Each structure stands twice: as C-alpha cells, then as structure tokens.
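Subject: design request, 329 residues
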C-alpha cells in the first residue's frame, strides 16, 4: 500500500518547574519541602491508525478492504503531567547520617504502557476521552528511611580509640533503607467480545464504590469484583484504564561492614554482609482483573473466583543474604 506521510512532525519537549523551601535547624539538621511539576508534550508512542469502531470487525477498519490488520505508526502523540510534594529531612552525627524522604504525587498520561511500548487505550475512530488516566507507574505515596551509621569506636572516634582495643572494635558501620510505596494502578478488563479492530474492552462499573478487601491469594479477593460486570458484546465498556490501585510495596535492605586501614589509610580492606528484604516480607503484584463470574458451591459459597479479583503473584524476592570484600587503594 502506498501512503504518504508529512516530512515534518512536532518535536517532543519536556517542561519542568519546581519551588523548594530549605531550613537549617542546626549545623547537623536540615529539612526541605517543595513542589515539583513536569509536563511532557508530543512524546513518541505507537498509534494504531487502522482501528475500527465497536462491532464493525475488520470490515470497519480505516483502510479496509485493502488492509485488515493493525497498522501502528510511531508518532509524537503522547502527553504526560506529573505533580508532587517532595520532602526530605537529614540529621548528621559525626560521620553518620540518618534521613527520611516522603513524596505525595500524581502522574497522568495517555500511554497504555510505560517502557517505550506505549500505545493508545482507545484507538481512532473512537473517542480519546478514556485514554488520559493515571500513569501505569504512578505511586501516590512513597516513603524512605535511610541511614549510614558508624560505630563510635576505634581510631578517630570518641570511644576506645587507642591501643589494641581500638583495633578490635573499630571500623564497624551499618547502613540500609526502609521503603514503603503505594501500589500501582490497574485496569478492569472484560470477557466479552468487542469485535473491533485494534480495540481492547474494559468492564462496566455497576457500583460507584469499589471496596478494597485486601486478599492476597486465589481464594480471597483483593477488591469487590461484584462492582463490575461484562459489558454487552460489541461495546467498549464504560471504565477507563488504571482506575484501581494494587497492594503497596514494603522492603528493608540492611548491611554491616568492617573496614581495616593500612599504610595510614591509603589502603583499606572492607568486609561486608548484606541482607535484601531483611524481614522476608512479600510484596504482591496487582490482582488479576479480567471480569469473570464466580463458580458457586451447592450451598451458595464461592468455589472459584475464576482468577478474577484475586492475586496470584508477587513482585519481591525472598530474603537474600550475601557477603563480600573490597580492597580499596
């Protein structure tokens, strides 16, 4: 098929702005809080230019009957906005540091995908109204507590800094981070047929209030699945993408190290032990969200949720321990 396209296109750009207030409460205690905004315009993304309206099938595609498959064009169609309140507090104790960072934010875009594979959720000729929703990477709350603490023993420190005892107890340090994030958004899909080229179908929302029940296994729902229903065949469904948020993320990484100095500190040998996911806490994936009607037992209880509204995976690894050594000179 011969097709001509414009030789020039709108070049993408990113606008950023921020305003921060910083306060030094003492030489060792500082804090800051500020507003951060970003607007990404004309970002490159995949746009299917050969879609069709609901219930028109391949015959309704824009280039039918000559081309009845998807035709994705990579073009500057993407748009993103990000706004956040960012805060940070730091406290120093000699060579040690402890800090806390918290961000309250919201990211909105029209990409159905976040890793360079973005495409439209609703494809032309259907209205784009449901394309612009929460970004798939949006986390409403993020919190981190971090520290690097040197034990106050040994040469150059306040306690036990002379003699053999200084060599025995000196050089120890611990460090780590505690992370707590809101969960990622997800879309409620449909089991009906939309019969439209290049289109995905979402569920209808029949209850404006969706209860988050918090289940984390195949037999306990994470959200109230009865708040949604399959739309009629040949329709798109009333819900947009990323309307609910999955379970949050929690993790602690910690390490302890011992450093030996030689030749007046010019050569250092460090032994370190590290623990990833120290508490062995599972962080769960977003729930399976393609609508299905539960299968019931004879007494009316639920036999199976049909892999809908339940969580069957995790996004974190089990606790990992490792040891290592570094020679620095």
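Subject: RE: design request

Done. Sequence follows.
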């Amino acid at each position: 098929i011969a097709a001509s396209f414009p030789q020039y296109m709108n070049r993408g750009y990113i606008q950023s702005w921020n305003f921060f207030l910083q306060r030094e409460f003492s030489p060792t205690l500082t804090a800051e809080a500020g507003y951060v905004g970003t607007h990404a315009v004309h970002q490159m993304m995949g746009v299917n230019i050969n879609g069709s309206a609901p219930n028109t099938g391949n015959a309704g595609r824009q280039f039918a009957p000559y081309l009845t498959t998807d035709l994705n064009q990579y073009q500057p169609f993407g748009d993103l906005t990000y706004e956040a309140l960012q805060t940070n507090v730091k406290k120093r104790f000699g060579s040690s540091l402890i800090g806390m960072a918290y961000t309250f934010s919201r990211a909105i875009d029209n990409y159905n995908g976040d890793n360079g594979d973005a495409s439209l959720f609703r494809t032309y000729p259907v209205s784009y109204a449901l394309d612009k929703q929460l970004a798939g990477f949006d986390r409403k709350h993020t919190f981190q507590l971090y520290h690097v603490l040197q034990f106050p023993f040994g040469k150059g420190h306040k306690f036990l800094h002379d003699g053999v005892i200084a060599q025995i107890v000196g050089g120890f340090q611990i460090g780590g981070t505690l992370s707590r994030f809101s969960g990622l958004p997800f879309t409620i899909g449909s089991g009906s047929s939309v019969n439209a080229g290049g289109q995905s179908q979402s569920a209808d929302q029949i209850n404006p209030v969706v209860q988050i029940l918090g289940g984390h296994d195949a037999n306990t729902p994470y959200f109230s699945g009865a708040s949604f229903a399959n739309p009629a065949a040949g329709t798109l469904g009333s819900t947009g993408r990323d309307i609910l948020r999955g379970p949050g993320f929690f993790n602690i990484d910690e390490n302890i190290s011992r450093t030996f100095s030689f030749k007046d500190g010019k050569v250092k040998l460090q032994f370190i032990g590290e623990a990833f996911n120290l508490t062995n806490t599972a962080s769960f994936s977003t729930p399976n969200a393609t609508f299905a009607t539960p299968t019931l037992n004879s007494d009316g209880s639920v036999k199976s949720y049909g892999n809908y509204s339940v969580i069957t995976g995790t996004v974190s690894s089990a606790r990992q321990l490792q040891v290592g050594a570094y020679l620095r000179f």
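The first helix runs from residue 163 to 169.
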